[in-house]
Amino acid sequence: MTDGAAASGAAGRGRGLALVLALPGAFLAAFCVTPVLLLVQISLAHRDAGAFWSAGLELTQYRQLADPVFLRVAAFSLSLAAATALLTVGCAFPAAYFISRMRRRAQVAWLVFLLGALSLSETLIVFAFQVLLSSGGVLVKALLGLGLIDTPRALYPNLAALLACLVYLALPYVILFLYPAVSQLDEEMPQAAATLGASPLGAFLRVTTPILRGPLLTAAALVAVFTVSSYLAALVLGRPEQWTVGVRLSNTALDAGDMPLAAAQAVALVAVLALLAAGVRGLGRARRTP
Amino acid sequence: MRHDWLAAAGRRIYLALVAAFIAAPLIVVAGVSLNATRRMRFPPDALGLGWYAAFFGDPQWMEALRASLLIAALAALLAVVVALPLAYAAWRYRSRGARVLAGVGSMVFLLPAVVTAVMFSAFWSAVAHVGHLENVAISHAAMFLGIPLSLLAAGFSSIDPVLLEAARTLGAREADAVRMVVRPAMTPYLICALAYVFVLSLNEYLVAYLVAGFSVPTLPIRIFTNLRTGYEPTMCVAAVLFMAVGFCTFGLIARLGDLPRLMGRQRPLRD
Questions:
Q1: Domain map (residue ranges) of chain A
Q2: Cβ separation A17–B41 shorter than 8 A
């Protein structure tokens, strides 16, 4: 399909291409690359009094990261992210699979529902969870009615409420992320497995799941990235000891006004996440080509 | 046969549970917004539309709504204007430069939101342009650029090269081929990309808060500050408004285009 373009001459093509790419290139340089480089630079800068910093090249902030409190928060955030990723992908995978096998109208309805839910602000979802779990809420009434609790009390803040909200936030994303891969699956394979005597569940676990190992691992990594820095859900639905690295980071930037330290925390967080993502990718590749 | 019946029932029950989980908080908030009293009760004790009147009569909420809509529209437009030439060049000229740029553009989307927020707040204060509405719009455009990039790339790759070839064989000039083949194929993808960024920007609060939270309070920022200070029933009305915008936007896209295909399904789907 590029034959026509080739015929119009390499020089013309080059100039045309440069023209087409000039505006996006300028935007990317100014608003995607510069902020990232600036963040790295600030993380190495010298902190002055107040919220100010001056250009420098020192590792003061990175040394401060070794603070045991920060390391504990980071470790908690990572395990919370891993738990959320596992739960979300575990719930989302069968859902995406079933949805992709529905009739068109039902599929479209599900996709609109998921896209609508996915677009809802985290502020709204956290607020909705607050209402749902409040001491006068419908859930508490149901538990009282069933005799599972004696006195009406709010069902948050605690780890379960936080985890439920984090799964809620990620679930539509993951179902939609898995949808293309799942809808590409052959019907014949599980059917062949069934003919050979496998139960539908057995066929799903032993035939369908291994084929999708790559997308499943990627989805889990994405959830972990989004969760590790979750801010509002942790702040409102979790106890202070369950506050994530995201809460910590924005507190450093906003309340303490220590931009260089916040930048160093951000850079370190991204580095750890990138390493984890690379590991997950490697895992997906290694298993797929035995 | 018995297995089939069981499997179908299990499938239905599972999906019903997932739907209930996703719908529950939304139904509760919508219910609370209809409360006649100030209390955060569900199901409501007495019904009334009083909070809707209060919401639309409150100049502060209206100001926040206006700012949110303006930011979202600007961010959507900007993200698509930047993404379209990149996706086009990557597809039409198989340009490696365009692909590298697209990779750079998707990068910010993969950063945790807190990192993006700290990064842009540092950036805008470094360029000494603090607290403006356009800062939030540009930051959102950069943050969500990955979405139009991947949607538009998918759109271009869905165009059958045979059609383009046929148009040229029949003597169509490049511009005509684009008009006749590329534009109709790309329209649903463009609309979807615009809508996606619009809705995500409308709902984003952390970057908006750190970039210009005090001078440009958007709807999510107002909800966020209310969350920390105390309950206000008009928050539920804002929530219902958001849900309505989200579901209507994507419902409309589903009417205009082939949503399963836009979401990446390649196999044909029976009705």
A1: 68-288
A2: no
- pLDDT value of position A1: 42
A224 close to A273: Cβ distance less than 8 angstroms:
yes
**How many Cβ atoms sit within 10 Å of the Cβ of residue A14?**
12
ipTM reported for the complex, 2 dp: 0.86
The structure tokens 């006749």 sit at: B180
State residue A86's pLDDT score. Answer: 95
Question: What residue in B sits closest to A129 (Cα-Cα)?
Answer: B25
Please indicate if any CB of chain B lies within 8 Å of the CB of A198. Answer: no
Model pLDDT for residues B135-148, shown as the tens digit of each residue? 999 999 999 999 99
CA distance A227 to chain B (A): 8
Q: What is the enclosing helix (H) or strand (E) of B146?
A: helix B146-157
Q: Which residues of chain A from 83 to 142 reach within 8 Å of chain B, CB to CB? A: 91, 94-95, 98-100, 103-105, 107-108, 111-117, 119-132, 134, 136-138
pLDDT tens across B13-42, in order? 999 999 999 998 888 888 888 887 777 667
d(CA B164, CA A153): 66
Alpha-carbon gap, residue B260 to B197, rounded angstroms: 19
- Which candidate from A31, A138, A262 shows the least CB-CB separation from B42? A138
Question: Any CB–CB contact under 8 A between B194 and chain A?
Answer: no
Q: Tell me the per-residue pLDDT of A235-287, one tens digit each, with 9 for 90 and over.
A: 999 999 889 998 988 888 888 888 899 999 999 999 988 888 888 878 777 65
Cβ(A273)–Cβ(B112) under 8 Å? yes
Topology (CATH) of A68-288:
MetI-like fold (1.10.3720)
Q: Which of B113, B126, B264 sits opposite A180 (nearest CB)?
A: B264
Q: Minimal Cα–Cα distance from A290 to chain B, Å?
A: 28
* pTM, full prediction: 0.87
